Amino acid sequence: MVPMAEPQSADVPASGYLVVRASGAAAARAAILGGGGDPEGIQLLLRCPVPRAVAESGARLTFADATLHLLPAGVVLLTVAAAKLSISFAELRPLMFRPVEVDAPLRSLFASAVAHVLSAGPRLDPHGLAHHLLGLAELVLRSALRVELDRVDALASRRREALEYMRAHLGEQSLSADKIAEALYISRRRLYQLFDDGQGVSERLKGLRVERAKALLADPAKAGRGIAEIARDCGFTSAPHFSRTFRRATGRTPREFREQALRG
User: Fold this and answer.
1) Average predicted confidence (pLDDT) for the chain
2) Which of 3-17, 118-132, 184-198 is the least confident region?
3) Nearest CA among 221, 208, 215, 223 for reference residue 171
C-alpha cells in the first residue's frame, strides 16, 4: 500500500491550486535529517468540485500503488507510488511542497475523473482502476510541470531583459522602477515580482552601479578621471552619495579602492 499522511491545514491548497508532496519513510527522514533519497509515494492535493453525494460519503479507494481519498472542503488527495511514475522525483522538484496554479481545463478534467472513479469505484476492476489513477496523476503532474517550467523560463527571460535595460541606462540618475517597468511594458508590481529574491529593484540597481564603479575605478585607462565624474557616469546623484554607498558596499572609499586596484 502507498504510504499516506493526512495533510495539515497549511498544506490544504486554495481553490485552483495543486500541492505536490513526498510521502513515506524516506521522505520523512529527509525532512528531519536532510539529505536525499527518493520518496515512496507522491501526493497530489487539489481542491475541486465533486458531486455532493460523493463529497458527503468521504469516499476512499486504496490499491497497492494508488490511494484516492476525498477530504473535507472538496480537497482530493491522490497518492501514487513514486516508482510507478515515468517522471523522476528530481524532475518533479519544481512542483514540490508549494502551491502551483492549475488552469481551469485541467481542474475540470481532474474533478470529472475523480467523481466518476469515486462513484463507480466499487464496481470497477481494482487492477485497471489503479492504472487509471496512476495515469491521472501522470497527466496532472506533467501538465502542471510544463506550465510551471514555462512560467519560470518566462520570468527568467523578463528578468534578463530588466537587467540589460538597467545596465544600459545606469548613468541616468532618473532611472527608477517606474521607468524600467514602462520600458518593458509591464506594471511596477510585475517588475517587483521579477526580483522577489529579497534584494528588490532599488537594491539591485544600486548593486549594478557599484559594480560599474568598481570596474571604472580599477581601469588604468580611467585613472585620470575624477571620483565625481565616475559617480555621474554610474548614475549617483553626487560624489558624497556615491562615496557613502560605495563604502557601505565594499568597506572602502572609492579613492582607497582605486589606489589598491591600480597598485595590484
Assistant:
1) 84
2) 3-17
3) 208
Distance, in Å, from the CA atom of 18 to the CA atom of 14, rounded to the nearest integer, reads 8
Which grid coordinates belong to 68?
Answer: 484516492
* CATH code linked to domain 169-263: 1.10.10.60
Q: Which residues pair with 17 in a beta bridge?
A: 101
Supply the pLDDT for residue 230: 94
Which one, of 2, 193, 10, 1, lies nearest residue 97 by Cα?
A: 10
Domain boundaries, the chain: 9-153, 169-263
Q: Are 75 and 12 in contact (CB under 8 A)?
A: yes
H-assigned helices in 5-125: 25-33, 52-57, 89-92, 104-120
- Tell me the angle at which helices 239-250 and 200-217 cross, rounded to the nearest 10 degrees: 100
Report the C-alpha gap between 10 and 124 in whole angstroms.
34
- Chain segment 130-177, per-residue pLDDT in tens: 899 999 999 999 998 888 888 777 888 888 999 999 999 999 999 999
* Cα radius of gyration rounded to whole Å, the chain: 27
Residue 49: all three cell numbers together: 468540485
Backbone angles phi, psi at 69, to 5 degrees: -135, 125
pLDDT in tens, 79-120: 999 999 988 888 888 888 888 888 889 988 998 888 888 877
